[in-house]
Amino acid sequence: MKKEPIQIAYLYEDLMNTYGDSGDVKILRYFLEKEGYQVNVVNVSLEDTFDADDFDFLFFGGGQDFEQTVVAKDLLRHKATIQAYIEAGHPMLAICGGYQFLGTYYKTSSGVTIEGLDILPLHTIFKPDKRMIGDTEFETAFGTAKAFENHSGQTFFDDPKLKPLGKVIQGYGNHPEAGVEGLHYKNTIGSYAHGPILKNQNIAKAIMALIIQRHEARLTAPTTALS
Ligand code: GLN
Question: What DSSP designation does 53 have?
Fold first, then answer.
């Protein structure tokens, strides 16, 4: 066993965990432990202090509209630390409601607009007439992934330079006309895929490699000298 545990921040685990998204963290833990790492998962919830710099991986699961409204009231105070982490190219996975929070806003089922982190140029609108539910399959840079989606929020990119996670083979993805699924920016992945998505070992292994890389770099980074 390696001495220093890998640190995973699970953002609002107690509120954002629809359709078994916690399975993503369990799968990563399983593979990392097989590689000889200890893994520590911290639930960062309402009113907790949080510095993304202390972590090797950020995970943000999906949630119902009500829980998203609750989380939105607490989340924005962490914008700077999450943005710096993402921009530095450290790994993050955000599913469904968590993915929606990376954008500028989410207009919920009740017509209320909740502010997102405004880190990436995308926004989401709940469309009551079209629930996007069912099996999905999409082609990503890591290979094909099969999953399950269940959302009414339709996500639109506001910058054509933004890259999706994959090309839809089956299902809806970001919205029925998009033909693409999720988001891939630096080492941050956003996705509508539950199932959990990391049952697709190709994606799990790619993320695991990024986590290990970040972990090793964080441990060897020079600390501020004490005078
Ligand atoms: N409430 C959001 C929607 O319906 C997200 C759902 C989810 O995270 N599964 O789009």
Answer: G
Gap between the Cα atoms of 199 and 189, Å rounded: 15
- Candidates 119, 169, 177; CA nearest to 147 is 169
CA–centroid distance, residue 158 to ligand 1 (Å): 20
> Tens of pLDDT along 113-128?
999 999 999 999 999 9
Q: Is the peptide bond before 196 cis (omega within 30 degrees of 0)?
A: yes
Is this prediction's pTM over 0.80?
A: yes
Ligand 1 center to 64 CA (angstroms): 5
Which sequence positions are flagged as catalytic?
96, 194
- DSSP class of 208: H
110's torsion region: left (phi>0), alpha (psi -120 to 50) or beta? alpha
Residue whose entry in the numeric block shows the structure tokens 């880190």: 119
- Residue 122 token pair: 């995308």
Per DSSP, the three-state class of 123 is strand
State how far Cα 124 lies from the chain centre.
15
